[in-house]
Amino acid sequence: MSDLDTGSNQSEIRYLQPLKIDTGKRQKFDRFKRYDIKYVDYKDPEWLAQFLNEQGKILPRRITGTSLKYQRKVAKAVKRARTIALLPFVTDNLK
Known about the structure:
Blueprint: H1 31-34, H2 45-48, H3 61-64, H4 68-83
Protein backbone atom coordinates (compact mmCIF):
# COMPACT_ATOMS: atom_id res chain seq x y z
CA MET A 1 0.00 0.00 0.00
CA SER A 2 1.18 3.47 -0.72
CA ASP A 3 1.34 6.29 1.81
CA LEU A 4 -1.50 8.12 0.08
CA ASP A 5 -3.94 5.29 0.75
CA THR A 6 -3.61 5.44 4.52
CA GLY A 7 -5.80 7.87 6.38
CA SER A 8 -3.10 9.07 8.75
CA ASN A 9 -0.97 10.64 6.03
CA GLN A 10 -3.82 12.48 4.31
CA SER A 11 -3.68 15.20 6.94
CA GLU A 12 -0.08 15.86 5.86
CA ILE A 13 -1.11 16.63 2.28
CA ARG A 14 -1.31 20.36 1.86
CA TYR A 15 -2.90 22.12 -1.03
CA LEU A 16 -1.35 25.17 -2.56
CA GLN A 17 -3.15 28.35 -1.69
CA PRO A 18 -2.66 31.66 -3.43
CA LEU A 19 -0.23 33.96 -1.67
CA LYS A 20 -1.68 36.94 0.08
CA ILE A 21 -0.15 39.88 -1.70
CA ASP A 22 -0.32 43.28 -0.07
CA THR A 23 -1.51 45.61 -2.82
CA GLY A 24 -0.67 48.66 -0.75
CA LYS A 25 -4.29 49.82 -0.51
CA ARG A 26 -4.05 51.26 2.94
CA GLN A 27 -6.36 53.95 4.16
CA LYS A 28 -4.77 57.32 3.47
CA PHE A 29 -5.01 59.95 6.14
CA ASP A 30 -4.17 63.59 6.36
CA ARG A 31 -1.59 63.85 9.13
CA PHE A 32 -2.26 67.57 9.44
CA LYS A 33 -5.92 67.08 10.29
CA ARG A 34 -5.30 64.02 12.45
CA TYR A 35 -2.64 65.68 14.61
CA ASP A 36 -4.20 69.16 14.38
CA ILE A 37 -1.15 70.79 12.77
CA LYS A 38 -1.86 74.38 11.74
CA TYR A 39 1.58 75.65 10.77
CA VAL A 40 4.17 74.01 8.52
CA ASP A 41 7.61 75.06 9.75
CA TYR A 42 10.18 75.47 7.00
CA LYS A 43 13.02 75.46 9.56
CA ASP A 44 12.58 71.74 10.35
CA PRO A 45 14.29 69.84 7.50
CA GLU A 46 13.97 66.38 9.11
CA TRP A 47 10.19 66.71 9.21
CA LEU A 48 9.98 68.16 5.70
CA ALA A 49 12.08 65.24 4.39
CA GLN A 50 9.01 63.01 4.88
CA PHE A 51 7.44 64.76 1.91
CA LEU A 52 10.46 64.29 -0.38
CA ASN A 53 11.64 61.27 -2.34
CA GLU A 54 15.25 60.08 -2.63
CA GLN A 55 16.04 62.58 -5.38
CA GLY A 56 14.68 65.50 -3.36
CA LYS A 57 11.43 65.94 -5.31
CA ILE A 58 8.22 66.81 -3.50
CA LEU A 59 5.89 63.81 -3.27
CA PRO A 60 2.39 64.26 -4.72
CA ARG A 61 -0.80 64.35 -2.68
CA ARG A 62 -1.98 60.99 -3.95
CA ILE A 63 1.02 59.32 -2.31
CA THR A 64 1.23 61.28 0.95
CA GLY A 65 -2.53 61.63 1.50
CA THR A 66 -2.20 65.31 2.32
CA SER A 67 -5.10 67.63 1.58
CA LEU A 68 -4.75 70.35 -1.05
CA LYS A 69 -4.59 73.13 1.53
CA TYR A 70 -1.68 71.58 3.40
CA GLN A 71 0.06 70.28 0.28
CA ARG A 72 0.42 73.90 -0.83
CA LYS A 73 1.84 74.83 2.57
CA VAL A 74 4.27 71.91 2.46
CA ALA A 75 5.42 72.87 -1.05
CA LYS A 76 5.98 76.46 0.03
CA ALA A 77 7.89 75.35 3.14
CA VAL A 78 10.10 72.97 1.14
CA LYS A 79 10.89 75.70 -1.38
CA ARG A 80 11.77 78.13 1.40
CA ALA A 81 13.99 75.54 3.10
CA ARG A 82 15.76 74.93 -0.21
CA THR A 83 16.32 78.65 -0.68
CA ILE A 84 18.09 79.06 2.66
CA ALA A 85 20.04 75.79 2.11
CA LEU A 86 18.34 73.62 4.74
CA LEU A 87 17.26 71.15 2.05
CA PRO A 88 19.06 70.34 -1.18
CA PHE A 89 17.52 71.11 -4.54
CA VAL A 90 18.83 67.88 -6.09
CA THR A 91 20.55 64.89 -4.47
CA ASP A 92 21.41 61.28 -5.16
CA ASN A 93 20.53 59.83 -1.75
CA LEU A 94 18.49 62.01 0.54
CA LYS A 95 17.18 59.21 2.75
